[in-house]
């Protein structure tokens, strides 16, 4: 059965409806206490590639449950009055995630164009993920 709408179309539609920041724009706001970066990559990606210091890790597969205050999995960080800026490896998953949480009513939200790859390429701060003891 052929796909009716592929990932490229879904990402393009999401990008048309959400706010997107460049790495430089996000770097300029790192010290702003009203901004929370949210890393939606898989934990194996964090271990392999590194992390953005201060970013909250929320795996893509759990985001709807962690954002919804009625969910038993709700994370209080998503109840704070902040702008949530999502990122993944390349900006595709974060575009879809940003659109989803925006549709859920979380605001304000945005994502980073090019994701962690663009972040790292720009020389933005990266740290090693702490190993579990």
What does this molecule look like?
This protein has 133 residues and is an alpha/beta fold. It has a single domain, classed as Oxidized Rhodanese, domain 1 (3-Layer(aba) Sandwich). 36% of the residues lie in helices and 14% in strands. Strands 1-5-4-2-3 form a five-stranded parallel beta sheet, with helices on both faces. It is globular.
CATH topology: Oxidized Rhodanese, domain 1
Average pLDDT works out at 96
- Major sheet summary line: 5 strands, parallel
CATH architecture descriptor name = 3-Layer(aba) Sandwich
Number of domains: 1
The CATH superfamily turns out to be Rhodanese-like domain
Alpha-carbon distance between the two ends: 47 Å
Helix content: 25-40%
Cα Rg: 15 Å
Q: What percentage of the residues does DSSP assign to strands (E)?
A: 5-15%
Order of helices and strands: HEHEHEHEHEH
**Name of the top-level CATH class:** Alpha Beta
Q: How many H/I helices?
A: 6
Summarize the structure.
By secondary structure, the protein is an alpha/beta fold.
Question: SSE layout and pairings?
Answer:
Layout: H1 7-17, E1 19-21, H2 23-27, E2 35-39, H3 43-49, E3 56-57, H4 63-67, E4 83-87, H5 92-104, E5 109-112, H6 115-121
Helix pairs in contact: 1-5
Entry keywords:
133 residues, alpha/beta, Oxidized Rhodanese, domain 1, five-stranded parallel beta sheet, 5 strands, globular
């Amino acid at each position: 059965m052929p796909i009716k709408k592929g990932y490229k179309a879904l990402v393009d539609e999401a990008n048309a409806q959400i706010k997107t920041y460049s790495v430089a724009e996000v770097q300029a706001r790192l010290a702003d206490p009203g901004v929370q970066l949210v890393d939606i990559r898989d934990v194996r990606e964090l271990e392999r590639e590194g992390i953005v210091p201060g970013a909250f890790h929320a795996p893509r597969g759990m985001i709807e449950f962690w954002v919804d205050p009625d969910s038993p999995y709700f994370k209080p960080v998503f109840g704070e009055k902040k702008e949530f800026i999502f990122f993944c490896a390349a900006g595709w998953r974060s575009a879809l995630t940003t659109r989803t949480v925006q549709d859920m009513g979380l605001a304000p939200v945005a994502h980073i164009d090019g994701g962690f790859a663009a972040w790292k390429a720009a020389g933005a701060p990266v740290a090693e993920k702490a190993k579990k003891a």
